[in-house]
Amino acid sequence: MASSTFVDTSGFYALLVQNDSMHGKAVSFLSKATRAKARFVTSDYILDEIVTLLKARGHGHLIEGFLESILASKACTIEWMDPQRFDATRQFHRKHSDKAWSFTDCFSFCMMQERKLRRALTKDAHFRQAGFDPLLI
């Protein structure tokens, strides 16, 4: 676990929701990563998505504790959208308009390229399509 791992919405969901099909695998990964003092990266867009998803699926009670934990974490860096990243993401999204990738996916891919990240804790096959290693597929 030499480099950081990106954590996507579905990765956070799998960690937080016990009845998720990848909960055990996600928890096992996190446990090993924690022992190895691994680092994680996510984005403000992913935090927006996971909060929205948790609320929509009836897990709103998990939101505040999750946010407190992430915001206080020394192991997880949050990358923030800014005007330059927005423009780069917009261009990337336009370049790949033939794909079913969301704008948030494209921001994740751009940021992962920027930080030279290869692995993502995600169940989203779009990460594989974009050339990354989705760990929960």
Using brief descriptors, characterize the structure shown.
137 residues, alpha/beta, Rossmann fold, five-stranded parallel β-sheet, 7 helices, 5 strands, globular
What does this structure look like?
It is a single chain. The chain is an alpha/beta fold and 137 residues long. The protein has a domain at 5-80 and 118-134: 5'-nuclease (Rossmann fold). Helix content is 54%, strand content 12%. The chain is built from seven helices and five strands; from the N terminus they run βααβααβααβαβ. The chain has helices at residues 9-16, 23-35, 44-56, 63-72, 83-95, 103-115, 126-129; strands at 5-7, 40-43, 76-79, 119-121, 133-134. The chain has a five-stranded parallel sheet with strand order 3-2-1-4-5. Strand 4 (119-121), helix 7 and strand 5 form a beta-alpha-beta unit. Helix 1 (9-16) packs across helix 2. The longest helix has 13 residues, at 23-35. The chain is globular. The two termini are 18 Å apart.
